Amino acid sequence: MKTQIVQVDERHINKELIQQAGNIIQAGGLVAFPTETVYGLGGNALSSEASGKIYAAKGRPSDNPLIVHICRIEDLQPIVKEIPEAAQKLADAFWPGPLTMIFNKTKLVPYETTGGLDTVAVRMPSHPVALAFIEAAGGYVAAPSANLSGRPSPTLAKYVAEDMTGRIDMILDGGDVELGLESTIVDMTAKEPIILRPGYITREMLGNLLPSVNEDSTIMSDESGQAPKAPGMKYRHYAPRAELTIINGETSRVIEYINGELCRLKKEGHKTGVIAADDTIDKYHADIRKTIGKRNDEIGIARELYRVLREFDDEKTTVIFSEAFDTAGVGQAVMNRLLKAAGHKILQI
Ligand code: TXA
Ligand code: MG
To answer: Is this model's pTM higher than 0.90 or not?
Structure first.
């Protein structure tokens, strides 16, 4: 399959081009598109065949449900059994935006889209290109992140092209994404909403609007035997090809420990890498050092994380050490993804 890559400027959206992309979806094809979180790999959410194609293109297990993207609030009703009051509140506050909510689905949504579940995840993204594209596509676009299963989510169209060329019909290149981490997922089917995946919309932000918000206990730990409620969160994810270990502890000891390991591993012939904040990056003796931004700027760190992980792949690093970062606010989502990328290998020293 030939994959067409087209540039779209969000300030001057070429309607003809977007309609062409929409037509591909309506005809059962696949188009990757920018959202404010990460690039999505879109197909018609109401078609079981299209969902099947998405799983195949990503190499994704078919028990891992897709998020249905909409562009108008009135398009929610037909695909969900009920809209709980709390969900209406959150939609009013955070849609369009980086929040995904889970509802009981109607028959309109095929089980192929929901990985066999009776619930459906729905999100209204805020990126102007995404909104125009969803409308042109008929209103319901199923879209996982546009990476091969297991790899870091793409924050640039060139990373989509790396993973998806030859596998999909079109890539809409809208440049850099704004946030860099996937949406917060909240299950609205429980009595009290439960956060299944942390993101830019934090527990505090949700708590300001709702009397109580719970959190899936598997978000920050790897409790064996307990399955995460978002099926996708059980897979090794966001992972660079190199072996990644997170080292947590007092800064000077972390530096000393990592440098000791780097020295040993270099002798063994490894190409080594380090991920650290601005203020400490120069202290490490790795072959490749990548700063992830200012230590107390979680939003900046969120934006850089996947790019940094992908760059290590390009540079053929074989082992990587990362500092641990603060888990306040969006930092929780950052550490959730970093822990997954490391397969939960974190050393307390
Ligand atoms: O920001 C985002 O959410 C991006 C952009 C493209 O919108 N999309 C994204 O999709 O991250 P994906 O497929 O990579 O992650 C979706 C997650 C998976 O962990 C999946 O298991 C969970 O959402 N999920 C989807 N439907 C669900 C459902 N009905 N119940 C529980 N978890 C669900
Ligand atoms: Mg994903």
So the answer is: yes
Of the bound ligands, which one is closest to the alpha carbon of residue 127? 1
Residue nearest to atom 30 of ligand 1 (CA): 230
Q: What is the tens place of the pLDDT at every residue in 115-168?
A: 999 999 999 999 999 999 999 999 999 999 999 998 999 999 999 999 999 999
Q: Which ligand is nearest to the CA of 113?
A: 1
Where does residue 28 fall: left (phi above 0), alpha (psi -120 to 50 degrees), or beta otherwise?
left
